[in-house]
Design brief:
Layout (H helix, E strand, L loop, with lengths): L4 H8 L4 E4 L2 E2 L10 H13 L6 H4 E4 L2 E4 L8 H18 L8 H12 L1 H7 L1 H17 L3 E4 L21 E5 L3 E11 L6 E4 L11 E11 L5 E5 L22 E12 L3 E6 H10 L5 H26 L5 H26 L2 E2 L5 E2 L2 H13 L1 H12 L2 H4 L3 H5 L4 H8 L7 H15 L2 H12 L4 H11 L3 H11 L4 E6 L2 E6 L4 E6 L2 E5 L5
Parallel strand pairs: 1-10, 5-8
Antiparallel strand pairs: 1-2, 3-4, 6-7, 7-11, 8-9, 9-12, 10-11, 13-14, 15-16, 16-17, 17-18
Length: 513
């Protein structure tokens, strides 16, 4: 059943070891660095129960209510319902939160799509991932992603340096496996569990590895330590930094110091084929809610820039309109990719409806590659006052208020206080420490930009352009090609590449992973 906000808060009072600013945190639900974002996650749980939001946030099955974000997608409506729920939350809380669980459960769906591979390794593993997916639906935990290791010297394999630079198994027991290492995880300190998977992309010829590991780790398990970066909350008054103080999703290096993972929580182990599969398909679902958050970020950027133009009377100038239109084109490009990826959705190997991979991954590249440019364009539209405006206390003090009223009041419609509120929003959105962190987070949160391009390379259907160019050039219908050391022929009539594998000919599908 869906949880309440208070049930979520109570689940975090479990004795977990959390550190921030050199301080051991007694209760993350009350600590000033965590309370604002914990309250937002609790608000999402509570919205699921409220009459005004229940039908948007949940669905009913066999007389029970479940969170729409965890629902397995089988048709287009499932995705449009998820999209509407995220937009409802974003508007209700007045800002953007990325790590709330709906994106991470999609990573588990990706692994479930590889259940045939898991069954080759050990039938228990496919059963484990299926059970965990259904438990997430039933119990609605806050589920985060354990992805990035410290890595150390990347010119060396993990075995040639401190082996703990990448999470690995150090021992097997009857109860489960013992793991060591560390993972960087956003929101881990106030989550219930994490989906841990490896970051190695190239396993070479290795078939077995203690680093090829996928599992569920409880965030309060013995040996789990949360060491958090300094938060933005409380550095300055919320009136002056409204986003920093409310929407800081605290990042954590999670130390895994001989942590026992029960066998029922192990999703794959040792086999590098399963590890390679999940790395290549990890974001086939989760990229959608992630890019949707970038769309909301685009709306906030556009809104701040346009309100500034309206307040200062510049919205009718052609140069200003052109810059605003550039922002709108970027925004609509993101929207178009998201919409089309669902309309052109594809059946996954496990029968789920996954967004069209080429369109979704291209949309992610469009959204993130243009984000730095669009933020700078918005800075231009907002003007230099976003970096020089005094704080709220100056606007209120009797000695200085009259001067702030004089120079920040624009006309009878736009008084000094509204002008200040817009400028501090734009400053926090575009110019603050939080803004810089948010930009870097968006660029790297799912993977580095080169990996985004690689995902497009793997998912784009190259056969159409090949066939068209071949036809226009009058080239032979069958052309010998070599890709990644595989020799084969391209058949223009069928639009397929065929590679020889031993004595058999096999079709090579450009969309295969």
């Amino acid at each position: 059943m869906i949880r309440t906000g208070e049930q979520y808060r109570e689940s975090l009072r479990d004795g977990r070891e959390v550190w921030i600013n050199g301080e051991r945190v007694k209760d993350v639900t009350r600590h000033p660095s965590f309370k604002p974002v914990v309250d937002i996650r609790a608000r999402i749980y509570d919205m699921q129960h409220e009459a005004a939001h229940r039908d948007v946030m949940t669905y009913e099955e066999k007389g029970e209510r479940f969170a729409i974000g965890n629902r397995l997608p089988h048709e287009q409506k499932d995705w449009t319902d998820k999209r509407r729920a995220v937009d409802t939350v974003t508007f209700d809380v007045g800002g953007i939160v990325t790590r709330v669980g709906d994106e991470t459960v999609g990573e588990m769906w990706s692994l479930w799509d590889g259940k045939d591979i898991l069954n080759e390794i050990d039938p228990r593993f496919a059963a484990n991932i299926e059970r965990h997916i259904h438990e997430s639906i039933a119990h609605d935990p806050f589920h985060v992603s354990a992805n990035t290791d410290p890595k150390g010297d990347r010119s060396k394999p993990p075995q040639e340096q401190d082996p703990d630079m990448l999470v690995h198994v150090v021992k097997e027991t009857d109860a489960g496996i013992i793991i060591r290492g560390a993972k960087y995880e956003t929101a881990a300190a106030y989550a219930n569990q994490a989906f841990l998977k490896p970051t190695i992309a190239n396993w070479g010829d290795a078939k077995l590895s203690e680093y090829a590991l996928g599992c569920i780790v409880k965030m309060n398990a013995p040996g789990v330590k949360h060491i958090c970066r300094t938060g933005f909350t409380g550095r300055a008054p919320e009136r002056d930094y409204p986003l920093s103080n409310k929407f800081d999703e605290v990042d954590t290096i999670v130390i895994l110091d001989n942590v026992l993972v029960p066998w029922e929580d192990v999703l794959f182990y040792q086999h590098t084929r399963a590890a390679a599969f999940i790395r290549q398909t990890l974001h086939r679902y989760s990229a959608f809610p992630f890019v949707q958050r970038t769309l909301s970020y685009a709306d906030l950027i556009i809104g701040a820039a346009l309100w500034n133009a309206k307040q200062t009377g510049l919205e009718k100038q052609q140069a200003v309109q052109e810059k605003l239109t550039e922002l709108a084109v970027w925004r609509e490009g993101i929207n178009a990719h998201l919409t089309a990826s669902i309309v052109m959705g594809e059946k996954s190997p496990n029968g789920l409806l996954m967004p069209n991979q080429s369109l979704l991954m291209s949309g992610r590249c469009h959204a993130l590659n243009n984000l730095p440019k669009m933020m700078h364009l918005a800075r231009e539209l907002c003007g230099g006052q976003i970096c020089v405006t005094p704080d709220a206390a100056v606007f209120e003090h009797p000695e200085t208020k009259k001067w702030m009223d004089k120079y920040y009041t624009i006309n009878d419609e736009w008084l000094a206080d509204d002008r200040r509120k817009l400028l501090v929003l734009a400053r926090d959105l575009l110019n603050s420490d939080y803004a810089g962190h948010r930009l870097t987070f968006q660029l790297f949160a799912q993977s580095p930009p080169f990996v985004h391009l690689s995902a497009v390379y793997r998912s784009f259907d190259w056969s159409g352009p090949l066939a068209f160019a071949q036809k226009c050039a009058g080239m032979s219908d069958r052309i010998r090609v070599v890709i990644d050391g595989q020799h084969g022929v391209f058949n223009a009539e069928s639009g397929k590449l065929q590679f020889t594998a031993g004595s058999d000919e096999v079709d090579f599908d450009f969309n295969a992973t």
